[in-house]
Amino acid sequence: MIAFTHSGRHRVAVLVRHGLLPMELGIVHQLFGQAESAAGEPLYEVVTCALVPGLVRTDADFPIHVAHGPQALGEADTVIVPASHEDDESMTDGLLPAALADAFALVPPGARIASICTGAFVLAAAGLLDGRRATTHWKSSEHFRELYPAVDLDPDVLYADEGDVLTSAGEAAGIDLCLHMIRGDHGAAVAGDVARRTVVPPHREGGQAQFIQRPVAEPRSSSTGTARAWALAHLDRPLSLRELAAQESMSLRTFSRRFREEVGITPVQWLTQRRIERALQLLEKTDHPVDRIAADAGFGTAASLRQHLQTALGVSPSAYRSAFRGPGAQGGSDSAQGGSDSARGPRNPPRPRAGSRAVAGAGAGRRSTTPGR
Question: What whole-number distance in Å separates Cα of residue 83 and Cα of residue 151?
Answer without folding.
Answer: 18
